[in-house]
User: Fold these one by one.
Assistant:
Number 1:
Amino acid sequence: MAILPTPGLSTRIYNWVDLVGEVVPLGTSVPQDGNLKIGDRVAARCVLGSHATYIVLPYEDLIRIALDDDPIKIGALPLNYMTAWGMLKHSGVKLSPGSTILIGAASGGLGTAVAQLVNAFKMDIRMIGTCSTSKFEYISSLGIELTDRKAPDVVAPLLRLTNGEGVNVAYDGVCSEQSLKSSLAATRADVGKVVVFEVMGNIDADGSGVVRTTQEIFAERLQPPRITFYALETSFYNKAEISEFHDIVKKVRNGELDPVVSKLMRLSQAREAHGLLKSGSSVRGKMMFVVDAELAAHYCIWTILCGNGDFFRGRKLHGKLWMNIVSHNLSERSLSFLSLQTRIGLLSSILFFFILFFEVMSMCLIIYRRGI
């Protein structure tokens, strides 16, 4: 999910804009000889509406993926990783090997994606990132050199890291007057560029809306060709960029790219998810929803009772545990994304069944001995 500028609207909308799901029915307009059928797994960049158990989309907007693709990893790609790819390749800047970039808010979903793509595709680009000190270890693990975004002077350390030359491109997700001034000062004199990819500085302090329209902010602060804005084409899947999406998918399949999904949450936790986005304190990489189980009950084989009383219902499908529309196998990685309460409840349930099993076996043994 992401917070995006919404053209034509004076308020900002929290858009759940990408998804991985399963085709349930097909409309009458879908070509009978097409390559889409019921049961296919698909990804989509739908702009609005994926915050739901079911969604109706034009068949042209769906990207079919393989049945054995990890839906959590592929689900991270349509927005974050394709936007990050565009920032590197299609934002009007030329990054040749040996270039240096500055990534603002480097620990977020886009910052993480930029770093992982640079590494996976071996672009030979030096990365410097700004973030809070609590996230330095995480950022270092991505191959990014660090600067403290809360330091009194953020420009001086950046210039020291580049021997006074500055970076070729600075990616700015705040777009405030101060952030743009600092970003531009950190680039190479007269030739360095700033690419704005978000307008977080325009959000009210309480996260309830925006101070001004995005159009007003851009008219005032963008200064082409030095300061420009980049956004992913909403219909990239119908253009040449779709081949680039599949190139990224191949990197995921062969293990060269492991998209960071820091949190998996249920739709019932939407309020908590919004709060995490507002604060930004614990967000590293991407957050995703696993759709509530009740609407997938038709496909169930078993039910797992969690500590908070909710149910995850799923079915085994090609070796994966599908939790409704989105799936994730119950591995150590997935358990780390569950809340502490849920983990305790899950372990308690497993312990209960073990105790029950041994009790039954003990009773059977007693009955057997008495029979003898």
Number 2:
Amino acid sequence: MKTVAFPMPSLLSFAFSVVCALCALPLAEAQEGKRVAFVAGVNVYDELPGEAQLSGAVSDAELMARTLKSLDPPFEVTLLKDVDWKDAQDGFDSFLDKAKGAECALVYFAGHGVEYYGENFLLVRSTSVPGISPDVERMKRLLGAAAVSLQTWVDRLDATRAKVKVVILDCCRNNPLKAESRGGTRSVVGARRGLAQVAPPSGTLISYSADAGQEANDGLFTEVLTNNLKSPGLNIVGVFAKTREEVRETSTTWAEEDAAKGVEPRFRRSRHEPAEYSKLDLSGTTFSFTRGAPANVNVELKEALGEVKPVPVTLTLDKSLYLASEIPVIRVKAERDCHVGLFYEDAVGEIIQLFPSGDKTDTRIPGGEEITLMPRTDPADPNQRIVVEIYGPPFGKEHFIVVATEESSGITVPAKDAANPFPSATPRAARVVRETAPKTAGAAAGEVPASATATGVGTARVTVTTRPREAP
């Protein structure tokens, strides 16, 4: 773990089972913003020969569209199949209108793509190039009128000012586009395989199903990616890194199997590795396609725990924005007597237990009363306070999560030791500290944003923003 000095104890599996394993207790969190997607797949190419026709691009696009619509929160999806140039441009125009200021704007294309002198073009149903000219700029203009200029789409997407912009290209296939040169020879227009790297604008991630010069196996990349998009709490960087590793491993196995069977090289499945190029902002790296507890948290529900009995609960923080060195005031109110656990998810997705801490073994709270969990007075010493302090990077979207259940099993107090009386929580962006002199909770240097509250059955999740304190 990059950001955590002390990992969350594995015995906390029960608490996060409420969120993840049972999938029965949705997180009570407000929609953070609009999510929109433009998805296109092209199998049919009217002006290209029979061997250039595809069979899986449309089904890949349909799978991506279904997946994006099913996520929590869902994407609003524009899906185009076997589209010609005009309809592709019209559809993209409509998508851009919806993408303005969105939390996430995503573009996915499956089909043929070609690179011509460093510029990428996506081929649509009507794409046709009558002839090859030695004038490179003239050829680029011809291609731009017959195919889609990827750079133009990327630039126009950037202009929407969506917070997170994603472009996914499943089109690193052999170049099928041929035209006659002046000598009467039919030649490939552009590079024979693969697409060129496009430098993403700020706030954008561009993903390719295969790295430069590689040829992707049809269907593999999108199948793996759509599975990973559904991973609860896995941030965008993790989604594409996990996809890259899984595609590389699977395609390597396939290529070795085909070689061992003596399959002709031109018919063998290819070893390939997806590639992504990112200029996501720090806050963008924390974006998750599916909200929830990250998969790196132990969420196996032990049979001995029996049936979960969740309790309606409200979690309130005194503010929605904290500057470095500030101390959140964290309050919990349950509908009836129950046991609670409090967890913190930092800006890079690490989850840490905040409560119970090493000193406090009683996790039960009375129903109907708002209880301040932090800062709190240590029962053994009224002069000591236990607080959560926002103290260092990474900054961005942070989450506080409370779990409330009738059972006390699984909401476990970690062992206390003399060197570290609070071993349960020391993430980089927040820490649990013991103090003899109380600090001012929620001091905001003249900036006092509204409080943040969430309510749910069994679990509630509040999202806040953290920022560095500006130098005086």
